[in-house]
Amino acid sequence: MRRVAIPERPDWREHAARAGFHFHSFDGAPYWDESAHYAFTLAEIERDIEEPSRELHALCLAFAERAVEDGAILASLAIPEHAWDAIRASWRRRDPGLYGRLDLRYGGAGTGPAKLLEYNADTPTALYESAVFQWLWLEDGLARGRLPSGSDQFNSLHERLVARLAALGTALGTSHLAFASFSDAPEDRGTVAYLQDCALQAGLSAPFLPVEAIGLESSDGWFVDQAGRPIEALFKLYPWEWIFADPFGRAIGASPTRFVEPPWKAVLSNKGLLAHLWAMAPGHPNLLPAFFENDPAKAMLGPSFVKKPLYAREGANVLMVRDGAVAAREEGPYGAEGFIRQGLAALPCFDGRHALVGSWIVGDEPAGLCLREGDGPITTDRARFVPHVIDP
């Protein structure tokens, strides 16, 4: 694994406009950054990222099997009790999930195994740029001779998403899947628009609904669209913890509407997962020791650790401590539900940039890779997306 500096294409913004990639910059600062790329060997991809990702996802499913039936576990995750039946029912029905992203600490062969930092199992973004725009970047780089002939990419995301959406429609018994997000959030809306396109290619109808336009039919429990029509199945880029805290969250369990991601994903999209995984598989080579903040066993981490809220986004409210001193801190609105402590595994630094590896899971299979770079050791919403290649 290495970082390769390369001149950006002078016309890449025109390429982005043609491809519908409209959120490549935020507040005038670049989000998409092609002034460099990361190059991996095939062995690093297959041995160090793909296989561990498959194993970690399987371990997470084994935890979900246990968690949904155990009130003590659900309580430890700060999931409200009124949501437990909906979570259990969705797991017992085997409601299908669509995708997720494992965030890993990995610095290349010889730097130790990839370590799970968290699992974005419910509402991960960075999907379109991973599946489509970095692939277009690769094809254009090969066509222009900017990349070595034979360069490849760990990226079967688009094909797997289309196939998974087709299977999901069959499993849910519907050809209609509505897609919801906040319409005024460019990254969320771009992610959902891409998934709508994948659903259309899978043979489903895929209308968009603003989150705030979704209603609830009190007589039969259906969630409904603006016209009052029942929503058979709904993909929502809106976290389960927010839904469970909303007034209509109590109606989820009794509603015939099916959700993607399903309610059982709430037990995986929670930093408390990390403490439970370590308890299930202590010493696993791809896990870091992790404990709830109120667990005296956290002392085994010593003076170096990372404190994370159970519910958080984009590095908010994360505290990094090294040798008893604060190494980094991010402010934010999270933490009321509690925290975990996780062993410190600092992100590798390439040319002064801290690189986070995201390993995508579609269905139950690893499907692709993304990398984000930050100026500091905590990955925030200001981190830049950098493409990757597999060396020929």
Automatic annotation (TrEMBL):
<keyword id="KW-0067">ATP-binding</keyword>
<keyword id="KW-0460">Magnesium</keyword>
<dbReference type="Pfam" id="PF03738">
    <property type="entry name" value="GSP_synth"/>
</dbReference>
<dbReference type="GO" id="GO:0016874">
    <property type="term" value="F:ligase activity"/>
</dbReference>
<keyword id="KW-0479">Metal-binding</keyword>
<feature type="domain" description="Glutathionylspermidine synthase pre-ATP-grasp-like">
    <location>
        <begin position="12"/>
        <end position="390"/>
    </location>
</feature>
<dbReference type="InterPro" id="IPR005494">
    <property type="entry name" value="GSPS_pre-ATP-grasp-like_dom"/>
</dbReference>
<keyword id="KW-0436">Ligase</keyword>
<dbReference type="GO" id="GO:0005524">
    <property type="term" value="F:ATP binding"/>
</dbReference>
<keyword id="KW-0547">Nucleotide-binding</keyword>
<protein>
    <recommendedName>
        <fullName>Glutathionylspermidine synthase pre-ATP-grasp-like domain-containing protein</fullName>
    </recommendedName>
</protein>
<dbReference type="GO" id="GO:0046872">
    <property type="term" value="F:metal ion binding"/>
</dbReference>
<dbReference type="InterPro" id="IPR016185">
    <property type="entry name" value="PreATP-grasp_dom_sf"/>
</dbReference>
